[in-house]
Amino acid sequence: MSALLLNVLIGLVTTVLSGGGVWLWNRAKQARTLHRKAAFFGLEGGAPCVVVMNDKYSKPGSMAQDDVHALVEIALLGRELGSPVSIRRSQEFRESNGSTTEFCIGGPLGGSNPRTGGHLAAHLPGVTLLPYGQDDDSMAFLVDGERFRCDRGRREHALVAKFRPDPASRPIFVICGQTALANRAAVHFLQHRHRDLAGSLETAERFCLIIRVDAIETYGFQAPTLERDVTSTAFAPAT
Question: Containing H/E element for 88?
């Protein structure tokens, strides 16, 4: 074998080995990323997921367009992590989530999602959702004496909580926005910030966050930010 041919052969082998190593490293990195994501969302091992959907405010049997988009994003999350996703109406789902991770979307005002109201009362007693009205406190979240108000179409808020109730083995995510757009923004926030949250929260197993949605006229649902971590107050009885 000539020296030239030998050099070519060595080059080809080196390229194949190097490319194979990069491919294996990328696959391992992707697997680790998906594992961390699945752990954050309680969907390890392809655990089943149920989305408990709300009705459009004061319109039973209908759904707001932004809530449909929030549902689709969760369905895509389940597909990415190999988790089967089912959909239930809030008025029909009256049982423990058991071994299924639950995403409960929408607030209880106007009968939109009574299950959310039940979750708030049972597990988040430090949170008060003020009723709909004509004043500045309409639909505001009240936590530790602070009001998180709704300036509809300009600045809105959503409460995002994760907890595991006994005797369930999987968590519940409560997505309680002041509007359907705030619900969608909160799901978008979780999808895109879960790694940051897992690293910054005291624990990713139980938390309660207030998400702020700014510049809605310009960015729609795509500019959510963390307003405040209210975990320590939300899970404690209101004073």
Answer: strand 85-89
Left (φ > 0), alpha (ψ -120 to 50) or beta: where does 76 sit?
alpha
Residue 41 is encoded by which pair of tokens? 């969302």
Q: Domain locations in the chain?
A: 1-40, 46-234
**Residue 146, beta-bridge partner list:** 143
Q: Where are the alpha helices (DSSP H) in the chain?
A: 3-40, 65-80, 114-123, 180-200, 216-219, 231-234
Coil vs helix vs strand at 75: helix
Distances (CA, A) of 143 to 25, 181, 238: 46, 22, 8
Rounded-to-integer distance, Cα 70 and Cα 182, Å: 10
pTM, rounded to two decimals? 0.86
pLDDT of residue 135: 87
State the Cα–Cα distance between residues 214 and 56, nearest whole angstrom.
Answer: 22
- Specify the range with the lowest mean pLDDT, choosing from 19-28, 144-153, 164-173, 185-194: 19-28
Superfamily of domain 46-234: Chitobiase/beta-hexosaminidase domain 2-like (3.30.379.10)
Neighbours of 185 (CB within 10 A): 30
Beta bridge partners of 172: 102, 163
Interatomic CA distance for residues 8 and 213, integer angstroms = 58
Rounded to the nearest 10 degrees, how much is the dihedral formed by the CA atoms of 11, 12, 13, 19? 100
First-to-last C-alpha distance (Å) of the chain? 86
Distance CA 75, CA 79 (A): 6
Identify the pLDDT of residue 23. 44
